[in-house]
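Budget justification, computational time. The allocation requested in the original proposal was used primarily to generate structure tokens for proteins on the priority list. As evidence of use, we reproduce two of the resulting records. The first is shown immediately below.
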Amino acid sequence: MPSRLPRLRRRLVASTLIAMALAAVVAVIAYGLTRLIALVTQVAFFGRWSTAWVSPAVNQRGVWVIVIPLIGGLIVGLMARWGSRAIRGHGIPEAMEQVLTNESRIAARMIWLKPLSSAVAIGTGGPFGAEGPIIATGGALGSYVGQLLPVTADERKTLLAAGAAAGMAAIFAAPLAAVLLSIELLLFERRARSLVPVAMAAATGAAVRFALEGPGPVFPMAALAPASFVALSFYTLLGLVFGVAGVAVTRLVYGLEDAFEKLPIHWMWWPAIGGLAVGLVGYLVPSTLGVGYENIVAVIGGHLTVGALAILALAKLVSWSIALGSGTSGGTLAPLFTIGGALGGLLGVCLAHWPITQVDPRMAALIGMAALFASASRAMLTAAVFVFETTMQPHALLPLLAACVAAYLVSGLMMKHTIMTEKIARRGVHVPTDLVADHAPSHTAPH
């Protein structure tokens, strides 16, 4: 180890300024993507030309709601076939692969193909969130800027991660979680040369969001009381349960991908088949259609009955897993939060019937959101901090940390790869799982 830390170089200042400018652009794109999704939703489900946000669950299309996601899937399949196959999937694994194998180079056409395809998929009822597509879009834009400028591969990776972090911060107003996501899933390091630009990019993305849409948590809820020692013990046990659930969800998604691979038709048609499943489930359970952020607010607010929670968790899981397995364009964060939150709320209501547990169903819902994502992705710190930032519940931090660690432990014991890495691991890509000190001085990039 060096006897003293190296001094930061002036080049880092330039990288940070570029990252902040990039973040401002990505945040505006994120705002535009949400408006585009709203526009497609209005046109597809209501026949109106408007960018006002509305849930497709309140549509009056009747049985025709089955056809709308099918048409959306068909359009996405055509875009993937004649535009770029890289738009398929939820974005983060594809960005990870470019970081690990291609010196963080992403094709420029992904800057517009990914958000457009995602807007079509989600706007026509796809059960996804906007966060995955904007992370992929921000990463693509950062990579493109890095290809235009005379920078090293490490600096280009930093710009890719900065764009991705800015996108996530702009969608969810969660800048700290965005930085942690970049460290755990994209950078595979924690050095000043990357941490400073990415952190400032995330802060810039969140600041632009506040300027465009106002401050406040994305998922508001009434204040939670501190958890007692007894309740904390049960929340940790819930983390173990969701550790198993995260493994099961991951295997389900990739099992469905394998099933689609065996179909005797071209992969271009798979998203249409997935869209048909989305339409059928959406006809029976309309709340599964679209982004569904309002479902998360209802779940963590304790506004749904036990039956409604069970139906939402099961129906969303079926719709999302089939759609994602078909290779359409969409994200994983919001669906996992919906499924985990509904299941956590359900278990919380059941435990609350025994006063000795001292469990609050709303806290259990937050535990489900974070722990399911922590297990499936193993982005443990990201999951805990993300749920805190999007709800602004300080008393939830301790239960979230305990549950996410428990879920992470179970996932690590039961599953070799994660929902983010399984796809690229099958292609022979080695994904780093631990960040350790580099005892050798770096000669590949300036600090």
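The second record produced under the same allocation is shown here.
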Amino acid sequence: MDKKTEAPVGLGDIADSITRQIEAIGDATSEALFEPVIRLGVTGLSRAGKTVFITSLVANLMNRGRMSGLLAASEGRIQTAFLQPQPDDTVPRFDFETHLAAMTGPTPHWPDSTRATSELRLSFRVQPSGILGGLRGPRTVHLDIVDYPGEWLLDLALLDLSYTEWAAQVLDRIADRPQAASYLGMVQGIDAAAPLDEMEAKRLAGGFAAYLTSARQDGYSDCTPGRFLLPGDLEGSPVLTFAPILQPGSTPRKSLWREMERRFEAYKSRVVKPFFRDHFAKIDRQIVLVDVLGAIHSGPAALEDLRRAMAEILTAFRPGANAFLSSIFLGRRVERILFAATKADHLHHSQHPRLTAITEALLREARDRADFAGAKTAAMSIAALRTTVEERMEHDGQMLDCVRGRLLDSGKTAAFYPGALPDDPARLLSPARKGAEAWLDADYEVMRFAPAVVSLKPGEGPPHIRLDKAAEFLFGDRL
């Protein structure tokens, strides 16, 4: 196995670090004395509804009629909330207005997913609480929402791996997945010790990217490197033209193996590290949206994969474990992390506690690490945009708790019973850990609902489930 080596520290690195420390001290002083800033990171795994969450959150913070769980709103201390230009001129603005129109217009539909980093600033005029609150005037608090793909966050785990380690781990993990059969066949037919053939490298990178796309569509979460799915302006560049292959007995210079190794290291240094340095290090509150119901529906392997992904994500919030992260955080720490199981409206409310319990069980191992590092974590079941209503129906002499909504494919309204989640999360997590191919005692179905037609009253945001409680956990203490 390759030994890890530390890159030498140059004068440029030292100067850059000092500059960041001065900026961090200046920002902290400015925030403490004048207008506090809450930097909320929002990310999600495999179609968890990131765009919908941000759009509904902002709309409900501007019109707080449905936000009784946010204490500053229920106590009437938020006088107003309004959008302002974001502080970072180099990051695209989150297209809030277009997304809200899609969700709440006369013919509502799901907005387009965001495929890169974006940002939005929402500012509050808030009356302070406490004994002295009445003696002081209202203050301005800024909420900077940073939206980024969950696949990019998972890339953090690559920083601790050599190419040899990463390739072996990936090939072992995907060995039994049908989505990987075509790519694994390609790997078996190459000579990694042969001189680099650029067309061969492109074919391998394309085959691995196709596998990642298929795996994500089927509910898997470990779809890294993240830029293979969202390449942007890096598409076709050498930094994205590598893939995991079998290590040969010898690895001569200019061989396919050596070039794959070099490009993997370039991906870490030129793609992964800049993202964490420029965006992630500014975050002090974080929500990770997780489609737990989708993973359960996809089967035990997808659920176990989700558990591992959640554990890997939380390593991003432990900068002491990684020298690179320690250098960019500069004493700053993500203080609160919420893992939110989305699409709670696909279940009757009687099953919401079970969904939350399963999410907490998935988090247990990873949460212990984060709590040890000082971050406050929580799990919650939410629906950023409620698309269904609840009803009870009789079927074969049994009363079932159902939900009714407009089906995405046909547009017709239908009632749906997804199956009962178990009271004990171990009934799902245990077979998932043991590598079971299917659930033995039940099938869990997932329907795709379209947004419902809504008529919003003045002062109301879009209907939701526990969005107000999520906001209270994430930043209610700062309002």
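A brief technical remark on that second record: Residues 110 and 464 are 15 Å apart (CA to CA).
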